[in-house]
Amino acid sequence: MINRTLLATLTLIALPLAAHAQEAADAVAPEATTETAFAGTSPAVQAALDAKQSGQAIIAQDWMVAAANPLAVEAGARVLEAGGSAADAMVAVQAVLGLVEPQSSGIGGGAFLVWYDAESETVTTLDGRETAPLAATPRLFQDEAGEPLQFFDAVVGGRSVGTPGTPALMEEAHRRWGTANWGSLFDDAIALAEDGFSVSPRLASLIARDAERLSRFETTAAYFLPGGEPLAEGAMLQNPEYAQTLRAMAREGARAIYEGPIAEAIVDTVRNAPGNPGVLSLDDLDLYAVKERDAVCVPYRGHDVCGMGPPSSGALTVGQILGMLDNFDLGALGPDDPESWRLIGDASRLAFADRGRYMADSDFVPVPVTGLVDPDYLAERAAQLETDAALTDVAPGEPTFDHALLWADDEALELPSTSHISIVDAAGNALSMTTTIENAFGSRLMARGFLLNNELTDFSFRTHRDGVPIANRVEPGKRPRSSMAPTIVMRDGAPVLVIGSPGGSRIIGYVAKSIIAHIDWGMNVQEAVAMPHLVNRFGTYDLEDGTDATGLAEPLAVMGFETNLRDLNSGLHAIAIGDGLEGGADPRREGIALGQ
Ligand code: DON
Predict the structure, then answer these.
(1) Domain range for 100
(2) Per-residue pLDDT tens for 295-304?
(3) Which of 144, 189, 145, 141 is nearest to 167 (CA)?
(4) 407 CA distance to ligand 1 centroid (A)?
């Protein structure tokens, strides 16, 4: 067990927070009632919650873990404290997250992982994305007339469930980089599932908000709505079926999920989902494989920003935004100048135009990866920003490529759930993993104690536009395009920042902006993740309601932007690596950073 007193003592507090970041923390208080939810917890967790609440970063020397729930972070901290690697800690964190934050991620979902290996000094990316069943057709999300289904008609039920990738990714990361005994990494999650845990405010509020959909399936309703009532904040919840599933995984490895009784239960649940059955089969589960992909690294102000390439659009789009902005001095402008946000907003719109047209699973469609982040191409795109007003016409560019780029623009809707885990271990390895079941509570189907994803709705529901195919259309065995952007920023070949977030396609904006806040505006990681959000993807500038960002609405409108005030639910978790480690957790969510 971790030495909690030592951890509490060593979990020191960093620099004071900038005023605007504090206001952001205050403004999102309804989502951030963690002081009450986790009261009575260990001194280290309490110190971390207090630090986050008062806007201060966590400082440590040897290792650090930041994730979306204190119980999950504690499980990871125990592994790291005992000398485990970042990959070991991730397995423990993910196993607990699947229990205490089941609406966001779990073994019924998928994830992308970016790994910096201290020994070989290399960055590796692993793709544990869900995969379309072999029986899926491009018209999976269309009605008889070929019209796209309504989003939630597609999401809820078996149709949207892809082959989960997270169990295989956990195992593959451990196989490559783990040092701890695999089975022991599930101990905390099993104990919590058997003994019970306190339902967090965020989980309780999301259950209440989604009660009607959750009530449609017997098993899901029995778990989240016992006696027909949504679980209340603070209720003690046990999940013996999940404990049994984890015991099987601890004993047999990920195969326990991909074949045998658990696989059969998944397939049975998907194929017999009342009203909206899916086509997932035992063969799909049996064939699932994690794929190692080339990391996408883009230069930015003397750093290399490295992340997950296709099927994620994360690193390419973050890289395009930063690559265009590298041509402008944001540091001199600062975060309060509307001009900074004109540049960031329109660079983002230009990048999203390319994303919509070109980015998809590169095993199925040729994606011009190199061309999209070529500095010359990005400088050419950035020339459009040399004006003083919002762009009136934003269209995809023509990156250099040796294939015809005959794709129509995509449409795909992405809505809340998802979680991000950042870890640095005592050996200097760094892990950045964004993990998801897509929508909150995924497909709403539950098998053997865990929720099944709805990741297939990240595909375009339409296959063509004006007769031109859409790159991100459904195809059997294909992985839906993602926006997840687990990132490791490198400088002189060493990692300096580990970061990522949930937030659907706004993930890209949250991550890009936090990197700018840290690198250009000198904010520490807590300030950077707490800073008010301004995100522009498709023209409308989303400004985080209740924060200082709203003060930019008028100047941005004068420049010609349409603005919209709204909640922006990121869940950024970041670790900066310098002389020591500095951790930040998003005040909009329930997570913390712990270190020693
Ligand atoms: O892979 C993706 O991009 C989405 N399925 C992620 C969903 C998400 O982040 C929802 N967030 N709040």
Answers:
(1) 4-107+119-287+438-478+579-595
(2) 999 999 999 9
(3) 189
(4) 23
